[in-house]
Backbone:
C-alpha cells in the first residue's frame, strides 16, 4: 500500500486558514475589530490574516484560538 501525501501550496493554505478564521469569528458574531482587540493586534493585521495575505505564526494562531474560545486544531483543520 502506498501512502500519498498531498501538500497545499503555501498561498492556498494561507487563504484556507484565513477563511476558516473568518468563519469561526462570524459564528461567534464577532467583528474583525473585536477579535483583533482580544488578540492585541491591529484590525489591519486581522484583515491580512483573514484574506490570506500573510501566514500567521503559531503563537498568533494560538492567540486567535484563545480569543475565539476554540481549540487550535479547529482553526488549522483546513484540508478539504
Residues:
Amino acid at each position: 500500500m502506498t501512502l500519498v501525501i498531498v501538500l497545499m501550496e503555501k498561498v492556498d493554505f494561507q487563504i484556507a486558514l484565513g477563511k476558516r478564521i473568518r468563519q469561526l469569528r462570524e459564528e461567534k458574531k464577532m467583528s474583525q475589530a473585536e477579535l483583533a482587540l482580544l488578540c492585541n493586534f491591529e484590525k489591519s493585521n486581522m484583515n491580512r490574516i483573514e484574506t490570506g495575505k500573510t501566514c500567521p505564526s503559531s503563537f498568533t494562531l494560538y492567540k486567535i484560538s484563545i480569543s475565539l474560545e476554540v481549540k487550535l486544531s479547529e482553526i488549522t483543520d483546513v484540508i478539504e
Notes: The two ends are 23 Å apart (CA to CA). Residues 10-76 form a domain with the 434 Repressor (Amino-terminal Domain) fold (CATH 1.10.260.40).
